[in-house]
Amino acid sequence: MSTAVTLNASHQTLSRASAWARRAPLLPALIFMIIVTQLPFVATLVISFVRWNALYPNDIGFGWFANYAAVFTDQAMLKSVITTVILTVAVVLVSLILGLVIAILLDRKFFGRGFVRTIMIAPFLIVPVAAALVWKHAILNPSYGLLNGTLTWIWGLFGHAASAPQPDWVSSQPLGAIIAALVWQWTPFMMLILLAGLQGRPLDVIEAARIDGADEWQIFRHMTLPHLRQYLELAALLGCIYLVQNFDAVFTITSGGLGTANLPYTIYQTFFEAHDYGQASAAGVVVVIGSMIIATFVLRTVSSLLKEEKR
Amino acid sequence: MSATITGERADAASIRRRAGAPVGRTASMRTRERRRTVSLGIIAWVIGLIFFGPIVWMLLTSLHSETTAATNPPNLFAPLTLSSYANFFGASSGASPWPPLINSVSMSLGSTAIVLILSIPAAYALAIRPVRKWSDVMFFFLTTKMLPMVAGLLPVYLIAKQLGLLDTVGLMVIIYTSMNLPIAVWMMRSFFAEIPLEVIEAAQVDGAGLLLTFRRIIIPLASPGIIATALICFIFSWNELLFASVLTSTTSYTAPVFLTSFVTSEGLFLSKVCAASIAISLPVLAAGFAAQDKLVQGLSLGAIK
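ok -> structure tokens follow
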């Protein structure tokens, strides 16, 4: 608020020299970001039009849209687009709903709330590769994982331990296994953002509504939910942006096998195993365009949140 | 918006007192409400413990011997042992974890230091004496964070190869700096914007120069935010896998890359897998718990306070 006021008041009086003095502290960070992030993207764009497979070093040349045509006709690539969409939407939806429920529970006062909040955050703080490894080996493994072990134990209670079902989770539900591990990691993220939203609610207005006889559902439906809308949008969009890029869980749990290769994994493979630089770059550009579409919505949400802050 | 949990709850209580509650509430309504609070609290505890379960399981498994860890049904009461940790750190089987751990520490600390050096002046220019069109600059930083990193991987690889920087700590420090700088600028701007301008102006009226103002006023007042920003940058650098696995190989590979050597390991090493996962996650868990309150600000790219 105060920054905006001084900004307007002092504009006209700024001489050119002091304008540069103002800009100077910003420049190192700005120049660094432009060099390190924009140049590689321009290079990716250029390479995406070049016929370039590192296995055939004598056949490098301008290929027009051949790489893009290859991306859009390659069955594996198309399948990975679908996988990416399913994976992202499923994880974001499930973790958003779980996160909302948990945020509402944690917004209430109860014994040990701080402690429960702390242990709820923990899954998000495990190194992603480690989390995926633990899901793969310690929880979902068919012969000694926790899940099947618990099934054996429950069946054992009734004296039928030998006949307990022992599904091979990762092989039978490869995408489901990745989704489960990611939902576990990302629910705390959604919960944290929504909890921040809940705590920004104007409590006096809610208290007034309660005194006027509104019940909890009415308050939730007509006051909490509209207030949370921006936070729900932001959590969903940020979740999409982070999860579209997910590499660790796919790499660790299935190594992209069994139809679970998403776009980042497929690009990694095209580049690292097939050595087709041109096609990998074209796929990269396609991912960038997809992300930019989501990003414009993020920017809109963020700027409306910033406006709210300034008011 | 930025009030703490306790602060806001205190407000709610005082409002309730001022409103003279319970207005029109009977004793039975209050008992019912209390019962509901208790049962919802229990549900919250149960959900919290379910989410924490895999971590407890990870810890328990890491503390069992390999033979008692890989049993079906699970044997919760097997004797505990630190042998898997000794095995992991002593590297009695497989490669030593120390080189990748040292690499990860130097990359994470190095990039965090550079991020702070670049983002503190930038935040000053964006929050305290804002440049013109400061919000456009902010959104530029934000967009760099939204583009998928994988799309820049190939050129970075080719450029690094040309410059002879492949498989060096320095290259990864630059990559992680670019990954975290936008987040840091956003977080830092919001922390700097919270410093009342009058305090800064008063210091300057008293004749303090820019550096003195920074040292005596701005840095101390923003220090909780600066520390939280540093911790979050540390976490993100420490966790990164994709770039590290492509750009590093024999000398500068990181702890997460080292962990991927367990991807195909079979049950024989279950306890060691868990011990390794715990050991490598520990710095992140510590940093995350320390930055808990500000975590959401970092995770949401500073958009929410």
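Chain A touches chain B through 121 residues (CB under 8 Å).
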